[in-house]
Structure formats: C-alpha cells, structure tokens
Amino acid sequence: MKTNQAARMVLAVFVLAALLAGAAQAEIPDTYTNLKVFPKDVGKRALVGAMRDFCSALGVRCTFCHVQKTPGDFDSIDWASDEMENKVIARGMMTMAQKINSELLPAATGEPGGLVRCITCHRGLEDPRTLEVVLLDTIEKDGVDVGIARYLELDEKYYGTGSYDFSPSTLTEVAEVLAQNRGDMDGAAQIIDLAAEQNPDDVVTQVMRSQIYLFKGDKEAAIASARRALELDPENEQARKILDQLDQ
User: Fold this and answer.
1) pLDDT in tens, 35-70
2) Domain spans of the chain?
3) What is the spatial distance between Cα 8 and Cα 93, in angstroms, rounded to a whole number?
4) Contact 59/125 with Cβ under 8 angstroms?
5) pTM given for the model
6) Roughly how many angstroms between the first and final C-alpha of the chain, as a whole number?
7) How far apart are CA 16 and CA 242, in angstroms?
8) How far apart are CA 161 and CA 119, in angstroms?
9) What is the crossing angle of helices 168-176 and 185-198, to 10°?
C-alpha cells in the first residue's frame, strides 16, 4: 500500500511539474516591474526556473503569491502587485536564504558554497512545521482523537514524499511530551498505542508503551510490551527492569 502511495505521489509531481513548465512560460511577461530581490536584469529562463522551484518546494501554484483578478484566468494575473501577503513574505524568505548561503553558513562551516533552498525547510508544504509539532498543536486544540485522525490523514497523503517524518520517533516523542510535559497519560497511551500499531517491531516504542501503561497501573499491557521489547532486543535493560519491577 505504501509503495502504491509513493508511486502515485511521484506521478503527481511529474504532472505538476509539466503543468507548471507549460503554464509559466506562457504567462510570465517578457519585461518585469517591481523587482526587489531578483536582479533587475534577470533573464526570463532564470526567473521562470526560480518560480518553478518555489511552487515545487511549497506544493503551490502562482496564485499563492500573485493576484489573479479573474479566478481561473492566468492571463489576468497582476505579476507586479504586492497585494498578496505571501509575496511579501516570499521576498523576506529569499533575502534570508541569500544571507544564510552567502554569510552565515560560510562563517559557521568555514567553507564557501553552502546552499539553503526553499525545499530545505518546506519539503513540499506551505507550512513547514514538523509532524510532531503539527500533532501536538492539533491535540492541544482539538483533542487526541482529532490528532490521531490528522496523523492518519497525513500518512495517507504524504508517506514516502519526505514532507513529514513518519519514522517511529515522531509518535514516541508526541507520547512523551503528552506524558511528561502535559501530564496527559490517557492521551499518551492513545498515541503510543497508535505508534505500536504503526511500528510493531520498534523496540523504543514497545519500551515506552510499557512505561506508560505501568504508570497507568495496567500491568498486563506493561508486561506485554516489555516482553515484546525483549523479543526484539534480548539485551534491552529498560524492558528487563520493568519486568523485574513487576515481578517484585
């Protein structure tokens, strides 16, 4: 199932790129006004290439930053207008990336040629927050059930694209924050159950599930996860200590 999702996403990326390539060449004028970050003498090929990179990096189209006077009519786009807030933000982001690449990275690494691009942080997303932050914010606002539904929705849409980190550590970190920082042991148990369902062979997930259920007083669940952790890693000291504690 995951392989099919990845294949569909690859196909979608190629289709989007083809659409952008054809549309951008036809729609962007030959002369430009109101350039504030791009060089005044920037060539059309360079400008179109940069715009295409922006669209791909954020998973958006031209109208994300440019005013379209008639919906659906790309000939009605006012390229020079600064009415869209996203265009102003984009200029700031471009300036930031230029400074990082030309000054900050060379100063930090001692080497020239550092390259930070939009895709470095955005990874195909308008909102480049990590999956952990998205889930914690969703849970705080709408509850754990909505957070779980959000995770499954994003997993279905983005798994295999690199936009989000679906490795086991994301859900275990969310569970840990709920348990330790927010004192929500029931919510932590729901998230760690999802983590165990998604990653049944991950030792860290099983150990954390055992710890959470031990705290909740569910010895049967705590023992089951500790034993599963030892099946996966017979040398795991945390799982062994939990079982020893329960035996006593």
Assistant:
1) 999 999 999 899 989 999 999 999 999 999 999 999
2) 2-122, 131-247
3) 30
4) yes
5) 0.80
6) 44
7) 51
8) 12
9) 170
